Amino acid sequence: MSSLVTLPVLLPILGSALTVLAGRSARVQRVIGVVVLTAVSAVAVALLAVADRSGPVVAEMGGWPAPVGIVLVADRLSALLLLISTLVTLAVLVYAIDQRIADYGREAASTTFHPVFLLLSAGVSLAYLTGDLFNLFVAFEIMLAASYVLITRRTNASRIRSGMTYVTVSLTSSLLFLTMIALIYGATGTVNMADLAGRIGELPTGLQTVLGLLTLVVFGIKAAIVPLHFWLPDSYPDAPAPVTALFAGLLTKVGIYALLRTQTLIFPDDRPSVVLLVLAGLTMIVGALGALAQDDLNRLLSFLLVSHIGFMLFGLAVFDAAAVAGTALYIVHHITVQATLFLVSGLITRRTGTVSIEAMGGLARMSPWLAVLFAVPALTLAGIPPTSGFVAKLALLQAGAGAGAAATLAAGVLIVASLLTVYAMARVWVRVFWGAVRPPLPDPDPTDELVVGTARTAKPMYVATGALVGVSIAIAVAAGPLSAITARAGHDLLDRGPYRTAVLDVEPLR
Fold first, then answer.
1. What is the torsion angle, in degrees rounded to the nearest 10, for the CA atoms of residue 129, residue 134, residue 136 and residue 137?
2. b/e for 291-301, b at 16 or more Cβ within 10 A?
3. What is the pLDDT of residues 427-457, one digit of tens each?
4. Average pLDDT, the chain
């Protein structure tokens, strides 16, 4: 089984190389992309089943054991996030393929999109599976390089400006990341996370605090935690819908995953963190209020993305098994629903020719199916019963209610942010789907990647979006078994014993 752990990284890299070789055949590129991601999804199912039944699955690269060698580790949390992320990536790829067919014709080749798309998938998989900090840095750099290409393809001045903001902030966080790795290695002599779990506690308390705060800053930038969120609303909205959906669904969640992994494994605490609770509350409120101030649909969704990062941070801040499990469940739910909403936004833009909420209207009569595709994820994001969003928020609230005064106050902020999300989604529904039907506006830039103001929307684009809606519904239907898996994952994260034993073959920490 250990060889399976390498496949989610190797298959997309090999697929990326094959799509470069097949650059003159759009059909072959499409088949390679879909087959590779389908295979990775199947591998993720197998890894989740084995990890849930028998514990973490470890692959030692080159036969070198940890902590000297590079290891890939699939435990319950990483396998679960790998599965849901790959399913979302597959749906987004199908959407992107059919968008290009509708816009440029079935035989239009792409020598850059498919290789870079698969390379991004490999980076995401490596981030979930790596067992050491340096290869986590490598995973983020793979994602950065791939995402920069995707965000600036067939570019214009606005997207170059957004891309430069994204790259500048990402490179700054990468420099901080390298600095953090150097300091940790200099202090402990290792970058293996399982080994660090036993060595960080031997350092002076002040040095532990400094390293923990630096880790929080590095991954806080990646995850867009307030006040380190400023880059996200300026970077995501200008990209094509599939690219934005992929970024919103996956990249910030990888940052949250890295924070969750390092804070529980390397820098554990035995009580709620007041600093993280304050940051969680600020992130929830600032993001929600920012969304209410937007007329641009994509910017509104981007600010709501920031707000709900705060929900995940809240569970980590409470820092008990139930809260961490709630965070894991919320990540699973949010990956799906946020990607779906950005895909729906792309469909709306194609029908209306604009991202301005005030310039839209009457879409429920023009396209009832589009209204359904928006309504379900909107209700899910708002946390209306019995959606997966409600189940995940309820888990977080139950964990936070009995964790002290600060956690209870932060739970109140979570409720307020949820109500603001409901208001924001209701505002979009009333302005965009109700009212008088408005004619579509002409495409302001026919040369870019965003073809808008047209009814030429391929049915498979609706099918791909509907598939993600179906995944979100399935999460709600399977809330019981899924909650049981995340509960076991939360216990493992705080126990740390199963992870360290699987990687290092050592006795559990006491």
1. -160
2. beebebbbbbb
3. 999 999 987 777 666 665 555 555 554 545 5
4. 88
Q: What's the CA gap between 355 and 149, in Å, rounded?
A: 23
Radius of gyration, alpha carbons of the chain = 22
What is the predicted pLDDT for the residue at 445?
57
CA 505 – CA 89 distance, rounded (Å): 34
Q: Residue 137's closest CA among 258, 10, 312, 16?
A: 258
Token look-up 């001045």 returns 157
Q: Return the amino acid letter for 396.
A: L
What are the mean pLDDT values of the chain's consecutive 10-residue runs (510 residues total)?
89 94 86 95 95 91 84 94 95 89 69 89 95 94 89 69 78 91 93 91 90 92 90 80 89 93 88 88 95 92 94 92 92 94 91 85 86 93 90 90 84 94 93 79 57 59 91 91 93 88 70
AA identity, residue 361: G
What count of Cα atoms within 13 Å lies in the side-chain half-sphere of residue 18?
A: 17
Q: Is 316 exposed, middle or buried (0-12, 13-18, 19+ CB in 10 A)?
A: buried
φ, ψ (nearest 5 deg) of residue 200: -60, -40
Which residues sit opposite 57 in a β-bridge?
A: 74
Distance CA 331, CA 214 (A): 23
Q: How far apart are CA 461 and CA 449, in angstroms?
A: 16
Q: Which residues contact 182 (CB under 8 A, 6 or more apart)?
A: none
Direct distance between the N- and C-terminal alpha carbons of the chain, in angstroms, rounded to an integer: 29
User: Residue 419 belongs to what H/E stretch?
Assistant: helix 405-428
Closest CA to 418 of 278, 245, 270, 287: 287
Distance CA 501, CA 278 (A): 34
pLDDT digits (tens, 9 = 90+) for 163-179: 777 888 888 899 999 99
Ordered by start, the domain boundaries in the chain are: 2-501
Compute the C-alpha angle 475/479/484, nearest 5°: 125
C-alpha separations of 69 from 78, 131, 187, 496 in Å: 20, 10, 19, 20
